[in-house]
Automatic annotation (TrEMBL):
Chain positions with 4-aspartylphosphate modification: 72
Coiled-coil regions, chain positions: none
Keyword Phosphoprotein carried by entry: yes
InterPro entries (alphabetical): ActR_PrrA_rreg, Bact_response_regulator, CheY-like_superfamily, Sig_transdc_resp-reg_receiver
Organism annotation: Sinorhizobium americanum
Keywords noted in UniProt: DNA-binding, Phosphoprotein, Transcription, Transcription regulation, Two-component regulatory system
Protein name listed in UniProt: Acid tolerance regulatory protein ActR
PANTHER family noted in UniProt: PROTEIN PILG, STRESS RESPONSE REGULATOR PROTEIN 1
SMART domains: REC
Pfam families: Response_reg
GO biological process: phosphorelay signal transduction system
GO molecular function annotation: DNA binding
Domain Response regulatory: 23-137
Origin organism lineage: Bacteria, Pseudomonadati, Pseudomonadota, Alphaproteobacteria, Hyphomicrobiales
Keyword Phosphoprotein: yes
Length: 193
């Protein structure tokens, strides 16, 4: 992840983009990534709280709902979507970004339906995350330079059906006319490029 140099401080432009409420909750179970991102966001002017699990994220969201949030989708004890729901239940103006190494369209759609603004695949750098957090409504997102490969399109379709089946492996395998173990192996792997 790219960070500003340790000596860098929030610029007046950063502070203006962030707004008056600078609270930011980052929920990720990758400890080193979480701490690097927290430092980078503090350098940009956010008041950062961190959580390494769904349970900890929900507890912090209920205690002090943040104005901004960066939430990993797959955590050791569950789904980051649960943290999004907890935040949205307490505060409806939170600007949330879903961050994951297992990016797929189906979960992106679910995250947006629950109130996330954007969906970034790891490894996203601090600049990308900051830009997504402070992007104003109506601003256009840059289009990706490379379209999805055929393998990626197939993987996305499998993920969409899996989400439609409420993450039930057996039902998903039946609908895709695929062996259950084959499906489990596909679901366990990272998304193809």
């Amino acid at each position: 992840m790219t960070e500003k140099s340790p000596a860098a401080h929030a610029t007046p432009q950063d502070a203006e983009l962030i707004g008056a409420d600078k609270t930011l909750l980052i929920v990720d179970d990758d400890g080193p990534f979480l701490r690097r991102l927290a430092r980078a966001m503090e350098a940009r002017g956010f008041a950062v709280e961190i959580a390494e699990s769904v349970a900890e994220g929900i507890a912090k969201a209920k205690t002090r709902p943040p104005k901004h949030a960066v939430i990993d989708l797959r955590l050791g004890d569950g789904s980051g979507l649960d943290v999004i729901e907890a935040i949205r239940g307490r505060r409806d103006d939170t600007r949330m970004i879903v961050l994951t190494g297992y990016g797929n369209i189906a979960t992106a759609v679910n995250a947006v339906k629950l109130g996330a603004l954007d969906y970034l695949a790891k490894p996203a750098d601090a600049d990308e995350i900051f830009t997504a957090l402070v992007r104003r409504e109506g601003e256009r997102v840059e289009l990706p330079e490379n379209p999805m490969s055929a393998d990626r399109v197939r993987w996305e379709h499998i993920q969409r059906v899996y989400e439609m089946c409420e993450r039930n492996v057996s039902e998903t395998a039946r609908r895709l006319n695929m062996h259950r173990r084959t499906l489990q192996r596909i679901l366990a792997k990272r998304a193809p490029k």
